[in-house]
Amino acid sequence: MENIIEVRNLMKSFGNKQALKNVSFHIKKGETIGFLGPSGSGKTTTIKILTSQLHLTAGEVKVFGSPIQKLNDPAYMRRIGILTDNSGLYERLTIYDNLELYCNLYDVKKSRIDEVLKAVNLVSDKKTVGKNLSKGMKQRATLARAILHEPDLLFLDEPTSALDPVNTKHIHEGLKQLNERGTTIFLTTHDMAEAEELCDRVAFLHNGEIRKFDTPQMIRNEYADSTITLMLAGNKEVVVNKDEEGAQEIYKYMKDGQLQTIHSNEPTLGEIFVQLTGRNL
Ligand SMILES: Nc1ncnc2c1ncn2[C@@H]1O[C@H](COP(=O)(O)OP(=O)(O)OP(=O)(O)O)[C@@H](O)[C@H]1O
């Protein structure tokens, strides 16, 4: 499968501060990738470099097969969608009018506006002006704008940070559909559950370095311990090893009708992040 993004030995400094240190990764067409890391780890800096909003200090970045330095033109901007917190919505215009403006800019048919409003759950708010929107509504309106022209590649900087659980779920469903229709998605998040739900692969970013980059399942497998917890009748908890002896014990409890629940002791992505970096998300 073709690489949509190729990053080699990327470095970014702000004065003495090294925000990104030797970052390398590839993203394939159709993947949803999550960059996870605590505040200040370099997530937004990565997105800004990939979207031509910041110059890199050293290294090589290619998007759609071309060096990022050559992509600072309208044709590139048409192929990507960006959601960051500097929303770019016109405060005095309604949500609908904001989107209409972008339809004209990107040459998108107006019927698409209602489609994206539905996708972000803002149909009934479309006549509200930008300055009267709540933080969550603003985030959803900006997402609507980012997906209006059905980009090949979508960058989302913490797409659900201001949303309640119902809207988060709605947005997650919308992003999955978009991805199924072929959009490659690069997102940053502090939220491990979001990463698990959406991402094919995740990168753990810490102090400007990638400490891990793999599928959530592979990462969990690597850090899984070798035990299984059984819950028996009378709320009695028993931990057995994943070996012949453990199998015999499980068989015995099942045969006696004592076994109520069974689960393998896999750490969560959040726990692994702490193990790897000593920091919480
Ligand atoms: N314009 C800038 N000037 C100076 N330092 C900057 C600038 N932008 C980012 N930094 C620094 O680079 C580092 C990485 O910042 P970045 O915004 O990429 O982190 P982040 O992981 O996106 O954090 P958050 O989750 O809080 O958004 C931080 O130490 C930050 O202070």
UniProtKB/TrEMBL annotation:
Keywords: ATP-binding, Nucleotide-binding, Transport. The keyword S-adenosyl-L-methionine does not apply. It comes from the Bacteria. One of its GO terms (molecular function) is ATP binding. InterPro entries: AAA+_ATPase, ABC_transporter-like_ATP-bd, ABC_transporter-like_CS, ABC_transporter_ATP-binding, P-loop_NTPase. SUPFAM superfamilies: P-loop containing nucleoside triphosphate hydrolases. Residues 5-232 form the ABC transporter domain. PANTHER family: ABC TRANSPORTER ATP-BINDING PROTEIN, ABC TRANSPORTER, ATP-BINDING PROTEIN. This is ABC transporter ATP-binding protein. It comes from Metabacillus fastidiosus.
